[in-house]
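Quick one - inputs below.
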Amino acid sequence: MKKSKILLNGIRDGVPIGLGYFAVSFSLGIIAKKGGLTALEGFISSFFTRASAGEYGVYSLIAAGGSYLEVVIMCLITNARYLLMSTALTQKFSPKTSLLKRLAVGCMVTDEIFGISIAYEGYLEPVYTYGAALISTPLWALGTALGIIAGSILPVRAVSALSVALYGMFLAIIIPPSKKDKAVMCAVIASFALSLLCSVAPYVSTLSSGTRTIILTIVISAAAALICPRTDSEVNND
Amino acid sequence: MTNHYTFLYILISIAVTNLIRVLPLTLIRGEIKNKFVRSFLYYVPYVTLAVMTFPAILDATQIPMAGAIALVLGIIAAYFGLGLFPVSVICCLVVLICEFIML
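Output:
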């Protein structure tokens, strides 16, 4: 496939991501405002971090007058899942992909960009990820800036509807492989069940959702890898 | 506000967040041979997205029921092979309609 076509595919798949981002980052902007960020600061911060939970944590810290060290720790914990995602992505590149392109894709990793990049058929073409980031990143940054400026002008109904766009996209990524591979289906069902359990269980439910996500991801993926290890032939078919 | 500079906070968060993202890509260049690690990494994306979707989708909407219906219809749409964008649009419309009826 031509590079320009792949780029367009990336942009197309980046649209729902961008729409969902816009709604989420708008509400993030309202929190950023409490931290005293200007619209420009919010735009720059969101453009270069693209970390919903991480940004939420940082803006809350700024609002509370937290220390720089606290910001570092907050970023490490809330974004630790990106470490797992980037590690998974290392296996998704063609051996020919240059380090520079790998790093560029790495910097673009968000939950959603990772999701569609890992679902890419065969080796990941970096331009696909660039395309998705090209459309979604400005919307994420713009949403934050507008949230800071305009507070709550977007009708609640619209925010409510837009906020599920992200989840719809997640479903479109996890359901088709579940159909093909029973082990994935079991892992997905276990993830739903345990995630629900951990959101209501004592102690664990007080952890931030970012922390719960990383703990559950490690535990369930490790269990799945032990119970249903992938044979080499299966792995090569990815 | 204290005497901390907002921009310094932002620079720190940009540096740390992106460092986490690129670190594995700098350290791991080749193919991982270990069967457990390969299997583990195979499951990571599905598990992490599933964990983030549910029950969070119930809290994203004004009424949890709207999120629940969007979840079910989204799963059905994805099961029948619809892509990222159509499934997302279906979920959004379902919430819009449900909340229009129920609120």
